[in-house]
Amino acid sequence: MKKTLTILLVLMSTSVYADKKKEHRHHEAHIHGGATLNIAFDQLKGQVEFKAASEGVLGFEHEARTEKDKIKLSETIAKFETAIGSMIKFDDSLGCTFTKEKIEMIAEKEDHNKKEKDHDEHKGEHSDFIATFAVNCKKELKETKVTFDFSQFKGLKDLDVTLLIGDLQKSVEIKRKPVTVELK
Amino acid sequence: MILLRLALKSLRNRQTSTLLTILSIAMSVTLLLAVERTKRAAEEGFTQSVSQVDLLVGARTGPLNLILYTVFNMGSASNNISWESYQEIKTLPEVAWTIPYSLGDGHKGFRVVGTDENFYQHYRYRGQKNIEFQDGGPALDVWDVVLGSQVFDKLKYKIGDKVVVAHGVTRGEGIQMHEDKPFRVVGILKPTGTALDQSLYISLYGMEAIHIDWKTGAAPTQENTIPQNYLSKENIKIGPITSFFLRTKTRIETLTLQRTINNYESEPLLAIIPGAALGDLWRGLSQIDTVLKLISLMVLFVGLAAMISTILAGLNERRREMAILRSLGAGPARLTALLVFESFLLTGLAILTGVLLNTGMFVLLSDWLESQFGFYVVGQMFSPTDYLYYFSS
Predict the structure, then answer these.
(1) Res A12: pLDDT
(2) Average pLDDT, chain B
(3) What average pLDDT does the segment B164-189 reach?
């Protein structure tokens, strides 16, 4: 009887464990040529998050394996590091400075439902290019203007910008040309 | 100077037609500016139906669907949010406050919202405006109900009146009524000019209490019915809710929290930034904008045509005046200058009158327009488009 109970308990705990091990199946939307830019500010401190399908900014989605791909990736990262202030241009009088937090290319998560043998075929099929910056300004942004200019990335066709500046919430859709937005 | 004196005397000589011309152009300008201002006021009113809320959270669906059924009483939710998930998110360190919304029932064509005290305390619209009562107070007890201003205007309930909620249908008359568990009116909200005016508000306990004996989605039989007086906050366990509004402690945390909620493992949820979603929705309605612009241009055209026809018609009457001026030595160039100057003077006066009329109208009527039509007259009185219209005139 004791033995049966022990086996039952072991079986039950295994099933609970297996249940917990269940993968979280979740895939975010991935739109080639599309990107999102979220900007949030509390008084003088802000955060900028840029996320695009890699194709739009790099011209490819696969892992950078060839020398050409690696150069393109490092050039794009450098472009973001040095020129983010001209892509997101706050009023000069505000004295805003950008500090890089992370810039990386992230491959889309694997579909855990697929069998192991399928993995290699689909690995790195899609990837995102993500850049995050902290921003510090000397004056508050309200009642000023900000210009978005991502025209240097020819593959970027549609940029959805969300602005959270204190209690101000705005969304802007940017196609190719630079767009200036009033923060009021 | 002599030109001005001549023009003024000539205009005074034709007082009635001058006044009528000024009035007709002024009315066109007023209408033109009013269309433009109304368009901006409607946009502000629409996009600021809810403010100071960082995230609106619901079951996973489209952002527009979530905002439509939560903020505008349009459509219905695809799923609910479990009470456990709500509690987990509510207690995250980044969260300042939340307002739960439980939907699904109605009363005589109006929606019934189950919520809690945070709704009365934290809900803001049009910037800083908070919910105010014209009579009574919030619905905090199980059987309390608060009426939106339009519900009050239409149904004429008084404080203390009984209200029976209909199960399921929120538009039109319900088919199954929670007749055994009526609510009591404890408050009436002041008009807000938003969809808030078209709802009734009960507590989450109240929403749960009317469904407590409904098993497998059907109304209870007589023997299964739990009497109203047996139910109190202590023996009611709140279940799933439809959506909730959330305020973070800082805006930077909003972005992180939005990501956390959208990737929430226990339950598929969607968190959106309401201001941004409302802006997207308004852009989606750009056809209205085009129609209004077309109306504005037609008004401008009619106004200008009226001015030209009045001046041309006046020319015939002024033959004698012209002849006298010619006999006194005024050349054709001077007469043309006089006519052009008169036209400028008329147009200038008419634009000024139109601007004053338009400004006065919006200053005097702004509160009424907001409460009755949801037009939120804020921001600059004149937009760049208005200046373009002046220039065109």
Answers:
(1) 47
(2) 84
(3) 80
Q: Which range, of A65-74, A161-170, B57-66, B100-109, averages the lowest pLDDT?
A: A65-74
Chain B contacts of A172, Cβ < 8 Å? Answer: 279
Strand partners, A107: A127
Taking CB atoms within 8 Å and a gap of at least 24, the contacts of A140-144 are A140/A43, A140/A44, A140/A166, A141/A41, A141/A46, A141/A90, A141/A94, A141/A165, A141/A183, A142/A166, A142/A168, A142/A183, A142/A184, A143/A183, A143/A184, A144/A90, A144/A91, A144/A93, A144/A94, A144/A182, A144/A183
Low-confidence ranges of chain A (pLDDT < 50): 1, 5, 8-21, 112-122
Calculate ∠ Cα B337-B341-B342, nearest 5°: 120
Say what the pLDDT of residue B341 is: 85
For B339-389, the pLDDT digits (tens) are 888 888 888 888 888 888 888 888 888 777 777 776 776 666 666 666 666
Asked if A170 and B279 come within 8 Å (Cβ–Cβ), the reply is: yes
Among chain A residues, the shortest Cα distance to B270 is held by: A28
Predicted TM-score (pTM) of this structure: 0.76
Q: How far is CA B63 from CA A28, A141, B70, in A?
A: 15, 27, 11
Distance from CA of A25 to the nearest CA of B (A): 9
Using alpha carbons, select from B218, B244, B245, B227 the residue that is nearest to residue B143: B227
Higher per-residue confidence, B369 vs B270: B270
SS3 of residue B109 by DSSP:
coil
* B129 in Cβ contact with B179 (< 8 Å): no
- CA proximity to B186, closest of B169, B161, B210: B161
Q: How far is the C-alpha of B231 from the C-alpha of B209, rounded, in Å?
A: 7
Which three-class secondary structure state does DSSP give residue A112? coil
Residue boundaries of the structural domains of chain A = 30-109+116-182
Whether the Cβ atoms of residue B100 and residue B86 lie closer than 8 Å to each other: yes
With CA atoms as reference, report the closest residue to B25 among B379, B378, B380, B352. Answer: B352
- Identify the bridge partners of residue A51 per DSSP, sorted by sequence position: A36, A130
Residues 32-71 of A with CB under 8 A from B: 38, 40-42, 45-47, 49
- Segments making up each domain of chain B, as ranges: 2-46+285-392, 55-272
Residue B220: which region, alpha, beta or left (left: phi > 0; alpha: psi -120 to 50)?
beta
Rounded distance, CA B211 to CA B112, Å? 13
